[in-house]
Specification:
The protein has 20 helices and no strands. The chain is mostly helical and 462 residues long.
Length: 462
């Protein structure tokens, strides 16, 4: 089963890469007047023509927020708005790219970063797909269903963001690993502390993953009678959460150092010129009032930057001109809301007790329904957050990378068929009698294909 998943995951990633190469070549790029990382033309490279090859083959992946990730990998957090992008993925890419450049400067650090980011995302994608299948297998014990879930993940509607230099793929792997480690109602310090700590510095919504650890620790404590066993779980939970928060705190201190204290940073002329042209705030050059978040009692940059630079806030995106973006997000929001509200309606009293008490109320509920409660709660919270706060078009990639609910929900419609090959997918879309299966695959494949084409030419698909 694992080999089939790995092969299918790699094949779908290669399809996305080929499609973006072709569409980027055939369709003129749109100029959305967004951030594009400034390139330093003075950098010496051995083979400038190799950069042209990389731009031709992978240039369509370096769009939208990928420019921020590549900029951080190449230059660091030089501009204040880059602080909205957490450091784990871009810094990992940057370290590898700079080592490669130091050993063999065939191309620039930027181009090395683009290649490294894509290769890492293919690796992380495979790991995420396998981890999701393991989680699904543990939840149900059904190997065929678990494989279906993983294969649907490989076809997910946000596929372009799982291949381009974005942090979604790494975050998915870390999140599914946290879910897997907590799903057996034990808290293993060694197995859990690493993915939990890293998820907090991978994406901002990684902070919500603390809820899984705390929830399952609380549930384990309630199921045990011996005080010593309860204390052991409590101590392990505190250690795991504490270590994760320490790494998160170090990251925030680093951001504070960059923008809230005066110190000399040797920015390149290209970085300085781009900042002057666009009025950006450079790191290390603090001026009065330049970074108001520095003066807060708890100087956290993320919320300020999201609101100041992109107008992210409660209902701020509810404007008539954003209607197309709401329509794009409607399918995944509808799936999540239908799943969650249907679950709550069927298991209302169990939900009132937050799934923590195993009593007469829960006897008619299946084991899978019991286990799925925290995942439902997590998915519902993310869905409502997307509806009320974020740029709504982000909902597809945010939910597809953070929760298994989309894949569990859709896999139930494919129990009596298979999607092990692209040929079987084509046959289902064209010939299958089930309208639900056809709609699901049309949604997944359609968004994956059109999203890749639009994204690779800087057309709206973020």
């Amino acid at each position: 089963m694992t080999k089939d998943i790995i092969f299918f995951a790699i094949k779908t990633r290669l399809c996305i890469i080929v499609l973006q190469t072709i569409s980027n070549k055939l369709i003129p790029d749109h100029d959305p007047e967004v951030f594009v990382s400034p390139l330093d033309d003075t950098v010496n490279v051995w083979m400038p023509e190799a950069q042209w090859i990389i731009d031709t083959l992978l240039g369509g992946l370096a769009r939208w927020d990928a420019q921020y990730f590549l900029h951080i990998a190449t230059h660091g957090y030089t501009y204040e708005q880059t602080l909205a992008f957490y450091p784990l993925f871009p810094m990992t890419v940057g370290i590898i790219a700079k080592l490669l450049y130091a050993m063999c400067p065939i191309v620039s650090v930027y181009h090395f970063s683009l290649v490294v980011a894509v290769l890492l995302n293919i690796f992380f994608f495979v790991k995420a797909a396998v981890c999701l299948s393991e989680l699904s297998l543990r939840m149900t014990g059904n190997k065929k269903w678990a494989q279906l879930v993983a294969l649907l993940f490989c076809l997910n509607p946000a596929s372009i963001f799982f291949t381009a230099p974005y942090s979604e793929t790494l975050y998915s792997w870390l999140t599914f690993r946290i879910m897997l480690e907590t799903s057996d109602n034990t808290i293993s310090f060694m197995r859990l502390v690493m993915p939990l700590s890293l998820s907090l510095v991978c994406r901002s919504n990684g902070f919500i993953n603390l809820g899984y650890v705390i929830y399952f620790a609380l549930k384990s404590c309630l199921s045990l009678s011996k005080k010593l066993n309860k204390m052991t779980i409590i101590v392990r939970t505190i250690l795991v959460v504490g270590c994760a928060l320490i790494l998160y705190g170090i990251t925030q201190l680093y951001f504070y150092y960059l923008y809230c204290s005066r110190h000399h940073i040797n920015h390149s002329p290209a970085i300085i010129q781009y900042a002057q042209k666009h009025g950006f705030i450079l790191s290390g050059i603090r001026q009065n009032g330049s970074s108001p978040w520095c003066d807060n009692d708890l100087p956290m940059s993320y919320s300020y930057i999201q609101n100041h630079y992109w107008n992210v806030g409660f209902l701020n995106y509810y404007k008539l001109k954003q209607l197309p973006n709401f329509l794009l997000a409607a399918p995944i929001l509808g799936i999540f809301l239908h799943f969650c509200f249907n679950y709550i309606a069927q298991n209302t009293r169990y939900c009132i007790y937050l799934g923590l008490l195993d009593n007469k109320i829960t006897k008619k509920i299946t084991l899978f329904e019991k286990q799925i409660f925290p995942f439902m709660l997590h998915g519902l919270f993310l869905t409502m957050f997307c509806i009320l706060f974020v740029h709504i078009q982000v909902a597809t990639r945010l939910l597809a990378s953070s929760s298994p609910l989309l894949y569990w929900y859709c896999a139930n419609y494919f129990k009596d068929t298979g999607i092990n090959s692209l040929e079987e997918i084509r046959d289902i879309i064209l010939l299958d009698k089930s309208e639900a299966r056809r709609l699901i695959l049309c949604y997944f494949i359609g968004f994956a294909l059109f999203g890749t084409i639009l994204f690779s030419n800087f057309l709206p698909w973020t």
